[in-house]
Structure prediction request, 393 residues.
Amino acid sequence: MVGEPAEASIVEETDADRFCTAFAGAVAAGGTVFLANPAWGATERAQFNALSQCKIENPKSKINHGWLCIPTGGSGGKLKLARHDQDTLHAAVRGFAAHFRATKINAVGVLPLHHVGGLMGWLRCGLTGGEFVAGDWKKFEAGELPVLPGAEGGWFLSLVPTQLQRLLGRPAAVEWLRGFRAVLVGGGPAWPELAAAGAQARLPLAFTYGATETVAAVTALRPDEFLAGERGCGTALPHAQVTVDETGAIIVAGDSLFRGYWPAGRETGTWVTEDRGEFDGHGSLHVLGRRDAVIITGGEKVDPNEVEAVLRATGEFDDVVVVGVPDATWGQSVVACYPSVGKSPDQAVVAAGLDRLAPWKRPKRFAALANWPRDAAGKVKRSELVRAASAEP
Prediction:
């Protein structure tokens, strides 16, 4: 019937080519497009099914406003769908290209396309007329690195910090990374030793800050700035305004901000994130961690990112996350979780490293977990770690 809204579409593919085809078809068909993660468990699947069946709260609003729903927040235990449209997507791409002084964006993608980091890596290429090469992270990690053809403007690559850490341990991968115009690093906090190792290897790193709600990066440190010794996540991209309030909360405004969490809408304006940050003398944003991740033990506040950075600096952990678990005596107990697969950390080396921390900041316990709940985009599911660490003897 003429005038009826188009049916909603769900795009759920692990293969990059199939995802691109399905996404293009869904957009062409009109209506709301929902992205889904094929690796979701039963809890997140149930949350998504319930949300995707909701009707938009303001049906008289323009169909263009918020028709693309990108999942976010699942790692915190509550799945949400951030609404975007062609205006927010185009603004993010224009800002990215201007910030990096690039006319065409050519990219190698190893992040999943249902995740905002992977999606924008592909869309930047498509909307600027550049080339996109879908990569396979497992092959990259095993040393199978593609030879990239010459392309106007060079190539971009997006990694999460743990992926960069693993590639830094392989000389052939380091040499390959040097050939990129920029290696974007985001999706989680990077520790100082990782940046130092990248600088020593003379890699063109571009640390970034962004979120699903901003369709990826709103700040970025350019590779020339990084190699000149600057640190942090860089200055704001042209389409965004990033500030920090008196409490340390990072606040974002600009043209790429989401239209609300489906099915609700939101007015334009600022968005107060759950992240804490500060700016250095160069205007570069330094992310200090999640505002809701602070551990309070015996009345003392502990920043898990600080403890994680010290543990990583020992070189004894391939991956480590610090969480607070309920404790009848202290309120919360500081626990360091790490994957049980791989080498066992040398406790003497770890103890020596922790000496630099105040006693209440040092982990009361170390939990080696067989099932490490990190998703394909590199984000750890802290709520699952808390549950698993709480169940450990």
